[in-house]
Amino acid sequence: MTEPVYVTETRTAYDTVAENYAELLKDFLQDATWDRAVLTAFAELVGEGPVGDLGCGPGRLTGYLKTLGLDVFGVDLSPAMIEVARRTHPHLRFEVGSLAALDLEDGSLAGALAWYSLIHTPPEELPVVAKELVRVLRPGGWLLTAFQVGDNEHRRIENAYGHDIAADAYRLDPDFVAQLLTDAGFVVDARLVREPGPSFEATRQAYLTARKEG
After folding, report:
1. Which of 18, 151, 166, 167 has the maximum number of C-beta atoms within 10 A of its C-beta?
2. Which domains does the chain have, with CATH numbers?
3. For residue 194, what pLDDT band results from cuts at 50, 70 and 90?
4. Nearest one of 18, 126, 21, 11 to 77, comparing CA atoms
5. What is the pLDDT, as a whole number, of residue 214?
6. Gyration radius of the chain's alpha carbons
7. b/e for 128-148, b at 16 or more Cβ within 10 A?
8. Separation CA 1–CA 184 (nearest Å)
9. Packing angle between helix 33-46 and helix 60-67, nearest 10 degrees?
C-alpha cells in the first residue's frame, strides 16, 4: 500500500530537525509546570505495567516518565529521532513505528502517551489512530494526549528548528478529540486547557486523559 504523503513528509521533516529539536527542547520541562503536573498525574494513574511513549521524538519525555517510576519505552516515526533517543537514553528501549499501525500486541500496555503526536494526522484520519491506541491498551489502561488548541485548522509548516521543511499540522478542538476518544472506546477522565506559555506557543494548549473501557 502506498504511504500517505503526510506520513512521508512528517518523517522527513523530523529526520531533518532531529538534532536541533533535541538540543533546543532538552531542558524545556524545567520551566513547564503544567507539563510536569499532567505527566505526574498520568504516572500515578498508570501505576505498574508497560507504557508506550508514542511519538517520542528524542525521548525527553520517555526519560522523564522513567524518573517517575514507569516501565516506559518509546516509538517514533522518525529514524533520526530514534537515533538521538537511543544515544541520549541508552538504558531505555526505542523503536521506529507509526501510531496508525503499532507493532504491539493487543492489550499489551498499561499506559500510552501521545504528546503532540496526533497533530500531523488529518482530523478525518484520526479515528484510525484512536482505534489503534485502544487496541494496544489493556482494559482500564490510561491515555494522555497533548495538542495545540484550534478548530481543527490546517497549518503548513515550512521552517522549524532552523531548517526548511514541508509538513502539515493541525490545531485541534478539545471537544473533537474527546468525542474521537469516546467513539473509539475510551472514557475521558479529565481535560485541561491552558493559555500560551513560552514565546513560541501561539495558541492555547490542551491535555486530555482517558481510560480504556473494561
Report:
1. 18
2. 5-212 (3.40.50.150)
3. very high
4. 11
5. 80
6. 16
7. ebbebbbbbbbeebbbbbbbb
8. 24
9. 60
